[in-house]
């Protein structure tokens, strides 16, 4: 990608020569270890530092590559002498070590930015507050089924940097969070997809929505007229500001509310893909493996990317029909005594919970709660009034949920473990209803991550 980079970040003026430089990696998870392996391959003096404990399999990997590392601390003498730093997207700018790096004008990059220097592969980059994992996996599925030599990376799967170091893919489908985008400067997406923008992670953006919006639009930075920008024309936040960003790429909107040119739109129960210079493709909603209006949007975005790459209509149609969605996203767990249990643990913001409630057509006992990231629950109040008969809170501090819904729901119960939440929900639910775990919050108060929360939920359901 190096031949495509533009507009260097001012902090990166000292990075014109990359070899024999000291690269410090903060955070020894999948992305950090991958960045360290790639850096070592390209001759950097590499050091990895994690303020917490490093998982045994990552320690073994670093040891195998003779990459020095530390855990449970950040030794400043070993970090503040870096030429550049690749940081985990989970580390906020207010962390003391980040503040010190910024004071010393040491460039801080994302793993995506760093890895992008060392590959000429075409990139399809997907961001959005909701739906990006599903859309990323669907896009990857379509490309793979079409026979393309394609890798899957970013917020999902194996590290992008590690794959660049060890594989030789022609294409990468990358799920990219706003935290990754914040430390990307010269990287360019060949095809960029912006699914939607709803309030999320506002605690990382000084509770300013515009800061978060600006972060999401970085997906289109550095794009040229040869590139492609795919976006939802029905998303109010995107539509309100898109003109402000003077996007140079070819623009492809998608909508279920109106007919659009050079993109995709729905009429009745039919999607039409009508990109310039390609055969028109029509598909019925019923042909899609992913159901629900939010998944129509996800399918449109993936389909446009596939059409840009001139994949055959038959391949696109077949791929969209046989795709299987991911674990922890509206995952059917079991039906017990006529009660359906759905695991949507990946719903870590209110808008995701809105989608989940919108897709369920029965009465709901909703399990929600956790670490509130500045949530505005007003967007789901109408759906809660219509569908939710009881709320089971799963978290240490549930005051915001009680305050938001005490006038809308007869029963709100506090629980402090997945097993307790499932048992309470089971007793509150009636035959024909749905127990839905869709927390609208992060999981870190009671669980390691959303996967752990979802797995504990599923285990508890199976013990009923």
TrEMBL record:
User: Coiled-coil regions in this chain?
Assistant: none
* Origin superkingdom: Bacteria
Which InterPro entries would you find in this protein's record? Mur-like_cat_sf, Mur_ligase_C, Mur_ligase_C_dom_sf, Mur_ligase_cen, MurD
Q: Name its GO BP terms in alphabetical order.
A: cell division; cell wall organization; peptidoglycan biosynthetic process; regulation of cell shape
Catalytic activity field: UDP-N-acetyl-alpha-D-muramoyl-L-alanine + D-glutamate + ATP = UDP-N-acetyl-alpha-D-muramoyl-L-alanyl-D-glutamate + ADP + phosphate + H(+)
Q: What is its EC number?
A: 6.3.2.9
Location relative to the cell: Cytoplasm
Q: Which residue range or ranges hold the Mur ligase C-terminal domain?
A: 328-441
Pathway membership? Cell wall biogenesis; peptidoglycan biosynthesis
Q: Which UniProt keywords apply?
A: ATP-binding, Cell cycle, Cell division, Cell shape, Cell wall biogenesis/degradation, Cytoplasm, Ligase, Nucleotide-binding, Peptidoglycan synthesis
- Which residues does ATP bind? 128-134
Q: Which residues form the Mur ligase central domain?
A: 126-305
Q: What class of enzyme is it?
A: ligase
Which GO cellular component term is one of those annotated? Answer: cytoplasm
Q: Name one GO molecular function term.
A: UDP-N-acetylmuramoylalanine-D-glutamate ligase activity
What does this protein's UniProt record list under function? Cell wall formation. Catalyzes the addition of glutamate to the nucleotide precursor UDP-N-acetylmuramoyl-L-alanine (UMA).
Note the PANTHER family from the entry: UDP-N-ACETYLMURAMOYLALANINE--D-GLUTAMATE LIGASE
The record, for HAMAP family, names: MurD (MF_00639)
Family, per entry: Belongs to the MurCDEF family.
The name on file for this protein is: UDP-N-acetylmuramoylalanine--D-glutamate ligase
Q: Which organism is it from?
A: Pedobacter puniceum
């Amino acid at each position: 990608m190096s031949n495509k980079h533009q507009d260097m970040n001012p902090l990166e003026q000292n990075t014109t020569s990359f070899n024999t430089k000291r690269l410090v990696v903060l955070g020894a998870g999948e992305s950090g270890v991958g960045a360290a392996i790639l850096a070592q391959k390209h001759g950097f003096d590499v050091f990895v530092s994690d303020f917490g404990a490093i998982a045994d399999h990552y320690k073994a990997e670093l040891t195998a590559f003779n990459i020095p590392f530390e855990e449970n601390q950040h030794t400043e003498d070993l970090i503040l002498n870096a030429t550049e730093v690749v940081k985990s997207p989970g580390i906020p700018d207010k962390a003391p070590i980040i503040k010190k790096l910024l004071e010393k004008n040491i460039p801080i990059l994302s793993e995506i930015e760093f890895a992008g220097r060392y590959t000429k592969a075409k990139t399809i980059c997907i961001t959005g507050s909701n739906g990006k994992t599903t859309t990323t996996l669907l896009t990857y599925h379509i490309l793979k089924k079409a026979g393309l030599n394609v890798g899957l990376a970013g917020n999902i799967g194996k590290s992008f940097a590690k794959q660049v170091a060890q594989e030789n893919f022609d294409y990468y489908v990358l799920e990219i969070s706003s935290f990754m985008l914040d430390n990307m400067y010269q990287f360019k997406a060949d095809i960029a997809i912006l699914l939607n923008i709803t309030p999320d992670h506002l605690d990382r953006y000084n509770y300013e929505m515009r800061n978060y919006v600006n972060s999401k639009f970085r997906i289109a930075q550095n794009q040229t007229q040869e590139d492609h920008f795919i976006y939802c024309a029905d998303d109010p936040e995107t539509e309100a500001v898109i003109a402000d960003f003077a996007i140079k790429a070819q623009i492809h909107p998608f909508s279920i509310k109106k007919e659009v040119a050079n993109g995709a739109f729905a009429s009745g129960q039919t999607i039409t893909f009508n990109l310039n210079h390609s055969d028109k493709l029509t598909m019925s909603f019923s042909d899609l493996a992913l159901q629900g209006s939010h998944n129509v949007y996800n399918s449109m975005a993936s389909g446009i990317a596939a059409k840009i790459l001139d994949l055959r209509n038959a391949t696109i149609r077949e791929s969209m029909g046989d795709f299987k969605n991911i674990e922890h996203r509206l995952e059917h767990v079991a039906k017990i005594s006529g009660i359906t249990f759905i695991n949507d643990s990946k719903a870590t913001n209110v808008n995701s919970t809105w989608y989940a409630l919108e897709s369920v057509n029965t009465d709901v006992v909703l399990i929600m709660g956790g670490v509130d990231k500045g949530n505005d629950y007003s967007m789901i109040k109408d759906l809660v009034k219509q569908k939710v008969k009881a709320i089971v809170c799963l978290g240490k501090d549930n005051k915001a949920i009680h305050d938001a819904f005490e006038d809308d729901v007869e029963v709100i119960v506090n629980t402090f473990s997945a097993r307790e939440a499932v048992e309470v929900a089971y007793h509150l639910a009636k035959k024909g209803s749905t127990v839905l775990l869709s927390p609208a919050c992060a999981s870190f108060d009671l669980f390691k991550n959303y996967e752990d929360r979802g797995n504990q939920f599923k285990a508890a359901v199976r013990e009923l």
